[in-house]
C-alpha cells in the first residue's frame, strides 16, 4: 500500500512541485543575483514536500539561533527528506553544500546553482578542499550561514557515522560558530535506497548549543569536530519534549 501511494500520489506531486518551483525560481534569479529570492522559493518547495508527504515537524531549541549571527549548521544525515525539513524550519538565510550529482537534475540543479548552493566533488579530494575554502569565503563575504552534513552522506542503517573535518574547517576559516542540529524520524519517512515513502510521520528537528571558533586555527578542526559529534550524540539520545507542529509553517526568512 505504501509503495502504491508513493508511486501514484507522492512521487508525481513531488515532481510537479519541483517543476513549478523551478519555473518560478529560474527567472527570479535573473532579477535577484544574490540567490535570496531563489531561497524563498526553495522554502516554499520544501514546505510543499512536507505537506505532500504529511510530515509533521517538532522543533526544539529554535531560540538558540541568534538571527543576527551566521553559523555553520552541522546535521546528521538519514534521508533525502533531511534537507526539506531543515530548509522549511531554520529561519535564517543559509546555503548548503551538496554532492555534485544533485546539480545535474533538471530544474532542481538549476535552482541549486542560481540560489548559491555549493557543489562538492566527492571524487576529487583537492577540489573538495577548494570547495571548503569557497564556502568559508561565502559565509564571510555574504554574511550568510551554511549547512553541511559532516558524515559525508546518508546513513544506510540510521546509525551515526564518523564525522569528516570539513565542517570544522569551514567554520574556523570563516570564524563563525558551529551549530549542531539533529534530525529524528526522516529515515522512517524515506529510508536510504528505498523508493517508498511512509507518509503522515512525525519528525523532530533539534537544535543544539553553538560551538565558538573565534581565535581557533584549522589545526583545531579535529577537536571541534569531536565536540560537534559529541553534542549530536547527546541530542539523539534525548527524548522529545514538545508536541509536533506543521513543519511547513516553521520558516520565515
Structure description:
This protein is α/β, with parallel strands linked by helices and 253 residues long. The chain has a single domain, classed as Glycerol-3-phosphate (1)-acyltransferase (3-Layer(aba) Sandwich), CATH 3.40.1130. It has 8 helices and 8 strands; from the N terminus they run ααββαβαβαβαβαβαβ. Strands 4-3-5-2-6-7-1-8 form an 8-stranded mixed beta sheet, sandwiched between helices. Strand 3 (94-99), helix 4 (108-115) and strand 4 form a beta-alpha-beta unit. The radius of gyration is 17 Å and the shape is globular. Residues 242-253 have low confidence and may be disordered.
Enumerate how many helices there are, as a single number.
Answer: 8
Main β-sheet description: 8 strands, mixed
Shape: globular
Structural class: alpha/beta
Summed over residues and divided by their number, the pLDDT gives a mean of 88
Give the name of the CATH architecture.
3-Layer(aba) Sandwich
- Domain unit count: 1
- Which percent band covers the strand fraction? 5-15%
Q: Unreliable stretches, pLDDT < 50, 5 or more residues?
A: 242-253
CATH fold node name: Glycerol-3-phosphate (1)-acyltransferase
Quickly name the level 1 CATH class: Alpha Beta
Give the fraction of residues assigned to helices.
Answer: 40-55%
Number of DSSP strands? 8
- Strand neighbour order, sheet with most strands: 4-3-5-2-6-7-1-8
Instruction: Round the Cα radius of gyration to an integer and report it.
Output: 17 Å
Output the helix-strand order: HHEEHEHEHEHEHEHE
Q: What's the N-to-C terminus distance?
A: 37 Å
Amino acid at each position: 500500500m505504501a509503495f502504491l501511494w508513493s508511486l501514484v500520489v507522492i512521487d508525481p506531486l513531488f515532481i510537479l512541485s519541483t517543476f513549478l518551483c523551478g519555473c518560478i525560481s529560474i527567472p527570479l534569479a535573473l532579477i535577484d543575483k544574490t540567490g535570496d529570492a531563489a531561497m524563498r522559493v526553495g522554502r516554499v518547495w520544501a514546505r510543499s514536500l512536507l505537506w505532500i508527504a504529511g510530515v509533521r515537524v517538532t522543533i526544539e531549541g529554535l531560540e538558540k539561533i541568534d538571527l543576527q549571527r551566521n553559523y555553520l549548521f552541522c546535521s546528521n544525515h538519514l534521508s533525502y527528506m533531511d534537507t526539506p525539513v531543515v530548509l522549511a524550519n531554520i529561519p535564517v538565510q543559509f546555503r548548503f553544500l551538496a554532492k555534485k550529482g544533485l546539480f545535474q537534475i533538471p530544474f532542481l540543479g538549476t535552482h541549486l546553482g542560481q540560489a548559491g548552493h555549493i557543489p562538492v566533488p566527492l571524487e576529487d579530494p583537492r577540489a573538495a578542499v577548494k570547495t571548503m575554502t569557497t564556502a568559508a569565503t561565502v559565509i564571510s563575504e555574504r554574511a550568510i550561514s551554511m549547512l553541511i552534513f559532516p558524515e559525508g552522506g546518508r546513513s544506510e542503517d540510521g546509525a551515526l557515522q564518523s564525522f569528516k573535518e570539513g565542517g570544522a574547517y569551514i567554520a574556523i576559516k570563516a570564524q563563525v560558530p558551529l551549530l549542531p542540529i539533529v534530525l529524528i524520524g526522516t529515515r522512517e519517512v524515506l529510508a536510504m535506497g528505498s523508493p517508498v515513502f511512509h507518509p503522515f510521520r512525525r519528525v523532530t528537528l533539534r537544535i543544539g548549543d553553538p560551538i565558538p571558533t573565534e581565535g581557533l586555527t584549522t589545526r583545531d578542526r579535529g577537536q571541534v569536530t569531536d565536540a560537534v559529534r559529541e553534542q549530536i550524540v547527546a541530542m539523539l539520545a534525548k527524548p522529545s519534549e514538545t508536541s509536533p507542529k506543521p513543519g511547513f509553517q516553521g520558516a520565515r526568512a
